[in-house]
TrEMBL record:
Cofactor entry: Mg(2+)
Keyword field contains Transmembrane: no
PROSITE patterns: PHOSPHOFRUCTOKINASE
GO biological process, one term: canonical glycolysis
Encoding gene per record: PFKP
Protein name, entry field: 6-phosphofructokinase
Tree of life domain: Eukaryota
Phosphofructokinase domain segment(s): 1-294, 480-665
Pathway listed: Carbohydrate degradation; glycolysis; D-glyceraldehyde 3-phosphate and glycerone phosphate from D-glucose: step 3/4
Length: 763
C-alpha cells in the first residue's frame, strides 16, 4: 500500500495539486482535525520498502451512518478536497461510492444547518472517487492482481522453502494453513508454486472419500522416495457437506491412517507483513499514477472507478460494476420428460458455476415450479452423488412458460436471477423461444439463457447429440531463435512439421512478442531486495549514493523496473541514449536532493547501456562531483540475479502458460493429424508459435511474424512496453519531465471471459 501512497502523492504534486493524507481511514475523515494533513514530496520518502501503510487504516462504524458521512463531508469541504483516492477492499470502495452518491445531498444539509455557505455547495458540487484494491486474498472482480497478493505469496513460499530442508531430513509431512476465508487464491497458487501434494480451498470442496484418496496419494509419493509431503489448507476450506476442513483435522487423519510424522504450521498474519515484493511495488506505483490521472480527467458524470490490472495493462473500471460482478445469480431447471444425464448436467452446472464465483439456484418442476416460487439456492454438497442417478432429481414437467410469464418474471426479479440454464428436450427449446419473444414486455427475461439438450428422442433442432468429448499429446521448445530456425528448416526436414510452441523464459525479458518472461520477476526481486539491504547498510552514516550494475545484456528491463521498484534516482539503459551532459544533470539533481531531503541515493546501470560510460566511470564521476555532499559505493550484482528460488509470480505464471501451451498443442495435433498417413503434418506459419503476454491477453503468435519486431544484433525487441514507464520513475525521483498519458486507462465495462476463449488465443 505504501508504494501506492507514494505514487499518488508524488504524481499529485507533479501535476501541481494539493495532496492530503487522511490518517486512520474513514475514522480519520469523520474525526477531521490532525487526521487530515497536507503532505509534501518528502513525506513519502523511504516508505517504498515498508510493509503495511504509513497512513494507517481503521474500521469506522460511524461512517456507515449518514451522520458520520455528514461530518466527513464537512471536514473535506473545510480543506477544499473534492477528489478521493481510496485504497482498500470491496467494503471500503462500496462505502466510498455511497459517499459520492450522497455528496450533493450532504452539502445541501450542511448549508441548511449553516455550517457551510451556499457558495461552497456550488463550488464543491461533486466528489470524484478513484479506488485501488488492497487485499492479500486477490478476491476482487475486475483485476487480475490486487495490491499485496504477490507479497503474501512471497511470505508463504519463504516459509515452505525454509521448512523443506528439515522436513526432507526427517521424512515429514507438513500441513500449512494459509489465509483465505472465502477465497482460495493464496492456497491454490502457493500449492502450484511449491509443488504441494494436496490443497484444500473453499471454492472447490473435495468429493466424498477424499480422505482415502489423499492418503493413497501421499503413500504413493512416499513410496517413490519423496521424503517430503506438503498439504496446503485455506482457512475457509470446506467439504462437500459444508463442514470446515481444518489443518489439525488433516494432520490427525495423516497420522492415524499413515503413521507419518506430521507437523502443522499456521502462518496467520505473517502473510500480511514483511517487505513488499517487486511486483507489488511496481503494480502499486502504476496504479497510483493511473489513479491520479483518472481523478484529473473526471467530470460530474464520471462514475466512481477502480484502477485494475488486466494482463499487463492498467485499466479503469466502474467501481460498482466490479463489486456487483463479484457475484451472479444463475438458475438451473429441467424441462420436458426425464432423460438419463440430466442430473449429471445439473451437477456440472452447479459446481462449475460455484467455481466461477456465481450463486447457483435450483428450480424444481420446470417452468411451472418457477412460477410457483419453487426456487432455492443450491450448494456444492447438494449435488454430490448425482452423476450416476437417473431421472430428474430436480423434477421436470412439459409445461411451457407462456401462461406463467408474469409470475416467472416476478420470481426472477425477487431472486435477482442474472442468467438461466435450461436442461431438457424439445419443450425446453420451445420454452426458450417463448421467453425470448416476451423480452420486449418483460425486462427480467433480458438475461443470458442457454439450453442443454437432454432427451431420449434426440429431437432438438440445432443439435446432433445430447452429450459428447476428446484427448491428445505435447511438444515444447524453449527458445525463440531455436524455434525460428526449426520453422525455417521445415522445407528440408519433414520431421519439423509438427506443432511447436515457445514459452519465453529469461531474466532479461528481451523476447519479442511478450511483455513478460518466466524468470524476470525473480530477478527483479533479487535486485530490489539487494538494493533495500544496501540502502539499509548506510543507515546512520553520512549521505551516500550507491551505483548498482544489473544484468540484462542490451535490454534495460531489469535496470528500469528494478529502479522503479527500489525508488532509484536514475537508471541508465541501452534503449535510452545518454551523454555526459545528462550524467552531469543527474549528479546535480541528486546533489541538490541530498542537501535538502534524502540521506541515501540509488543509481542503477544496465551492464551494456554504454560502452564508454561504464559502471566504474559513473562511480568515479558521482564520487568526484559529490565531494563534500555525499560519498559513493559501487556494487555489481552479477549472477546473483539468476539464482535463488523462483518467485511465486514466476512459479504461477510458468504453470499457467505451460498448461495453456499444452492445450494449444493438443488442439493443433487434432487439427493436423493425417489419419491415412498415421502421423501429424503441420507446415503452416501458425503451427509454430510463441505464447506471450501482450497487454492484457495471452496470445499465440507465429514466430515468423515476430521477425520484424526483433533487433537480432542486440537481441532485444524493437518496441518495449516498459519504456513508457521511464518518465514515471523520474517523476517519483522528483525530476521535471513529461508523462505520456495517451496509453492511460479509459473507463470501460467489466467483461467476464469464458475458459473456452483459450482456444482462440485470448484469456
Amino acid at each position: 500500500m505504501n508504494a501506492a501512497v507514494r505514487a499518488v502523492v508524488r504524481m499529485g504534486i507533479y501535476v501541481e495539486a494539493k495532496v492530503y493524507f487522511i490518517y486512520e481511514g474513514y475514522q480519520g475523515m469523520v474525526d477531521g482535525g490532525d487526521n487530515i494533513v497536507e503532505v509534501s514530496w518528502e513525506s513519502v520518502s523511504s516508505i517504498l520498502q515498508v510493509g503495511g501503510t504509513v497512513i494507517g487504516s481503521a474500521r469506522c462504524k460511524e461512517f456507515r451512518t449518514r451522520e458520520g458521512r455528514l461530518k466527513a463531508a464537512f471536514n473535506l469541504i473545510q480543506r477544499g478536497i473534492t477528489n478521493l483516492c481510496v485504497i482498500g477492499g470491496d467494503g471500503s470502495l462500496t462505502g466510498a461510492n455511497l459517499f459520492r452518491e450522497e455528496w450533493s445531498g450532504l452539502l445541501e444539509e450542511l448549508a441548511q444547518s449553516g455550517k457551510i455557505e451556499e457558495e461552497a455547495v456550488k463550488k464543491y458540487a461533486y466528489l470524484n472517487i478513484v479506488g485501488m484494491v488492497g487485499s492479500i486474498d486477490n478476491d476482487f472482480c475486475g483485476t487480475d492482481m490486487t495490491i499485496g497478493t504477490d507479497s503474501a505469496l512471497h511470505r508463504i513460499i519463504e516459509v515452505v522453502d525454509a521448512i523443506m530442508t528439515t522436513a526432507q531430513s526427517h521424512q515429514r509431512t507438513f500441513v500449512l494453513e494459509v489465509m483465505g476465508r472465502h477465497c482460495g487464491y493464496l492456497a491454490l497458487v502457493s500449492a502450484l508454486a511449491c509443488g504441494a501434494d494436496w490443497v484444500f480451498i473453499p471454492e472447490y470442496p473435495p468429493e466424498e472419500g477424499w480422505e482415502d484418496q489423499m492418503c493413497v496419494k501421499l503413500s504413493e509419493n512416499r513410496a517413490r522416495k519423496k521424503r517430503l509431503n506438503i498439504i496446503i489448507v485455506a482457512e475457509g476450506a470446506i467439504d462437500s457437506h459444508n463442514k470446515s476442513i481444518t489443518s489439525e483435522e488433516v494432520k490427525d487423519l495423516v497420522v492415524q491412517q499413515l503413521g507419518f510424522d506430521t507437523r502443522v504450521t499456521i502462518l496467520g498474519h505473517v502473510q500480511r507483513g514483511g517487505t513488499p515484493s517487486a511486483f507489488d511495488r511496481i503494480l502499486a506505483s502504476r496504479m497510483g499514477v493511473e489513479a491520479v490521472l483518472a481523478l484529473l480527467e473526471a467530470t460530474a458524470d464520471t462514475p466512481a472507478c477502480v484502477v485494475s490490472l488486466s494482463g499487463n495493462q492498467a485499466v479503469r473500471l466502474p467501481l460498482m460494476e466490479c463489486v456487483q460482478m463479484t457475484n451472479f445469480n444463475v438458475a438451473v431447471l429441467n424441462v420436458g420428460a426425464p432423460a438419463a444425464g440430466m442430473n449429471a448436467a445439473v451437477r456440472s452446472a452447479v459446481r462449475v458455476g460455484i467455481t466461477e464465483g456465481h450463486t447457483m439456484f435450483a428450480v424444481t418442476d420446470g417452468f411451472e415450479g418457477f412460477a410457483n416460487g419453487q426456487i432455492k439456492e443450491i450448494s456444492w454438497g447438494d449435488v454430490g452423488g448425482w452423476t450416476g442417478q437417473g431421472g430428474s432429481l430436480l423434477g421436470t414437467k412439459r409445461t411451457l412458460p407462456a401462461k406463467y410469464l408474469e409470475k416467472i418474471a416476478d420470481q426472477m426479479r425477487t431472486n435477482n436471477i442474472n442468467a438461466l440454464m435450461v436442461i431438457g428436450g424439445f419443450e425446453a427449446y420451445l420454452g426458450l423461444l417463448e421467453l425470448s419473444a416476451a423480452r420486449e414486455k418483460y425486462d427480467e427475461f433480458c438475461v443470458p439463457m442457454v439450453m442443454v439438450p437432454a432427451t431420449v428422442s434426440n429431437n432438438v433442432p440445432g443439435s446432433d447429440f445430447s452429450i459428447g468429448a476428446d484427448t491428445a499429446l505435447n511438444t515444447i521448445t524453449d527458445a525463440y531463435e531455436s524455434c525460428l530456425q526449426l520453422a525455417e528448416a521445415r522445407a528440408r526436414f519433414e520431421e519439423f512439421c509438427i506443432p511447436i510452441c515457445v514459452l519465453p523464459a529469461t531474466i532479461s525479458n528481451n523476447v519479442p512478442g511478450t511483455d513478460l518472461s518466466i524468470g524476470a520477476d525473480t530477478a527483479l526481486n533479487a535486485i530490489v531486495e539487494t538494493c533495500d539491504r544496501i540502502k539499509q547498510s548506510a543507515s546512520g552514516t553520512k549521505r551516500r549514493v550507491f551505483i548498482i550494475e544489473t544484468m540484462g545484456g542490451y535490454c534495460g528491463y531489469l535496470a528500469n523496473m528494478g529502479g522503479l521498484a527500489a525508488g532509484a534516482d536514475a537508471a541508465y539503459i541501452f534503449e535510452e541514449k545518454f551523454d555526459i551532459r545528462e550524467l552531469q544533470a543527474n549528479v546535480e539533481h541528486l546533489t541538490e536532493k541530498m542537501k535538502t531531503s534524502i540521506q541515501r541515493g540509488l543509481v542503477l546501470r544496465n551492464e551494456n547501456s554504454n560502452e564508454n560510460y561504464t559502471t566504474d566511470f559513473i562511480y568515479q564521476l558521482y564520487s568526484e562531483e559529490g565531494k563534500g555532499v555525499f560519498d559513493c559505493r559501487k556494487n555489481v550484482l552479477g549472477h546473483m540475479q539468476q539464482g535463488g528460488a523462483p518467485s511465486p509470480f514466476d512459479r504461477n505464471f510458468g504453470t499457467k502458460i505451460s498448461a495453456k501451451a499444452i492445450q494449444w498443442i493438443s488442439k493443433k495435433l487434432r487439427e493436423t493429424y493425417r489419419r491415412g498417413a498415421g502421423k501429424v503434418f503441420a507446415n503452416t506459419e501458425d503451427s509454430v508459435c510463441l505464447l506471450g503476454m501482450r497487454r492484457r491477453n495471452l496470445l499465440f503468435q507465429p514466430v515468423v511474424e515476430l521477425k520484424d519486431q526483433a533487433d537480432f544484433v542486440h537481441r532485444i525487441p524493437k518496441e518495449q512496453w516498459w519504456l513508457k514507464l521511464r518518465p514515471l520513475m523520474k517523476i517519483l525521483a522528483k525530476y521535471k519531465t513529461s508523462y505520456d498519458v495517451s496509453d492511460s486507462g479509459q473507463l470501460e465495462h467489466v467483461a467476464r471471459h469464458s475458459p473456452k476463449e483459450a482456444d482462440t488465443g485470448a484469456i
